[in-house]
Amino acid sequence: MGFLDNGGTAPATKNIILINVLVMVMIALNMEFMIEHFALFYPSSPFFRPWQFVTHMFMHGGFLHIFFNMYTLWIFGSALERAWGWKKFLVFYFVTGLGAALLHTGVQFIQAQVWMSQIAEGSVQAQASLHALKLTPTVGASGAIYGVLLGFAMLYPDARLTLIFPPITLKAKWFVIIFAIIELIIGIFSIGGVTDEKVDIAHFAHLGGMLFGWLLIMYWKKKRTLYDYKY
């Protein structure tokens, strides 16, 4: 399975983590180049390139960002990979990551259409918002990570999970439902400018990862191929 395949139980998960760490090092060495070429920009941005839909999944905005994403991937991605095999897990990971990017971009498109209508009416603020949208990069594996969490909850709904802070223990299915509701509420409010987040968070990318993960698992269940190691 590549340069980290040493007979372990989750080689794909380990390889994904290693690639993310290597890319983080490259960002530290030349942030401007990496962001401009490999972060995901809105399609009408002068910085947009098609491959960014994939490459942005391996980039992160800081140590805590990559640490929590990769820690979550290690815990829950390994469980899915052991259940499905590395090929099927990779398909799931990339489908959820790409699905997250598609939903995120779709929401951006809706925002852009609203601002363009306001610009036609002479809104200077809308013009500034549209300009900022085109210059704002999106990075992170969070969409795929949320898809992995959704996948784990669908395969092991009654597994009991405990948060570090606050120390709450719930079944996996309830954690995922709560996360989805929170992301949806905050995402809707952030579109309307109600929230005041200091860091832009792609809430609809998280929801996109969960949505496409759910769709793929339901498709596999319908085809009765969920556990046959085929992709």
TrEMBL record:
One example GO MF annotation: serine-type endopeptidase activity
Localization (cell): Membrane
Gene3D superfamilies for this protein: Rhomboid-like
- How does the record say this protein sits in the membrane? Multi-pass membrane protein
Q: Do you know which PANTHER family this protein is assigned to?
A: PRESENILIN-ASSOCIATED RHOMBOID-LIKE PROTEIN, MITOCHONDRIAL, RHOMBOID PROTEASE
The record's similarity note reads:
Belongs to the peptidase S54 family.
Q: What protein name does the entry list?
A: Rhomboid family intramembrane serine protease
Instruction: Name the source organism.
Output: Candidatus Cryptobacteroides merdavium
